[in-house]
Amino acid sequence: MSYLIHLRLPFQVLLSPIFLWAYLMADGKPSWTLAIAYVAFHLFGYAGGTAFNSFYDRDEGPVGGLAVPPPVPAGLLVFSLAWQAAGFALALMVGVPLAAIYAIMFSLSVAYSHPAIRWKGKPLLALLTVALGQGVLACLGGWAAARNEVASAGSLTGLLSVSAATLITTGFYPLTEIYQLDEDARRGDRTAAIWLGPRNAFRFALALLSCGALLAFLLVGTRYGWLEAALLAAWVSAIIVAIRRWSQRFDRRAVMLNFRMVMRLYAAVSLGFMLWLGWHLFTS
Question: Domain range for residue 203?
């Protein structure tokens, strides 16, 4: 059971909007191809990469999706690699473009976590890894699942879709570390949140979230109407206000309170987008 817990599957579901957003923007329709590609990326790729990272981090305090992580079993490293290999096989069933993106994401996860490279402890490289792995490549994965190619992602719609998702994902990243400041520092990792400091981490998040939301607003408005775009803007504005209020009363000593705040905000953004994406995917 501890092996499965370290996959943090419920947390991986919260990453769904990035992949599904690109799938929708690429005019994808519900299909078995979508189901297989989604499972490959989220339940195997992201989950296996998370377990791989847990093997080296050995967190004792709260970590994304787990308030109390269990001890790391001795075989977690081998398990995580086998789990990701199974996901690659699924991605290959969908097509070579998707499998190639999956393989690049796997390489980034190794570079992010492995002690010999450990980009997680190098703030600019960590931000770049998240921007590419969970932003650009996640979007291209959704695009490839819809069209079995990524060249058309160079269109205006594709570029706006990728840019919006990447800005929002990267903006959130330091906030997912902000409750681990002391634990990461003890481990010797100079994470993005430590490098920026709490005050600048919030500023960074608010700036990138706002820019990403503006691009999404323009794209949704031109494709689905300005009423939907206005509703999106109102909802994202409420999230931004909540983050700003949290920044004003942030206390780094309140680890569990900060952890719960991040998880609630992440869930609010993800679940809201998933409802909107699901409505368009299954009703259009």
Answer: 2-283
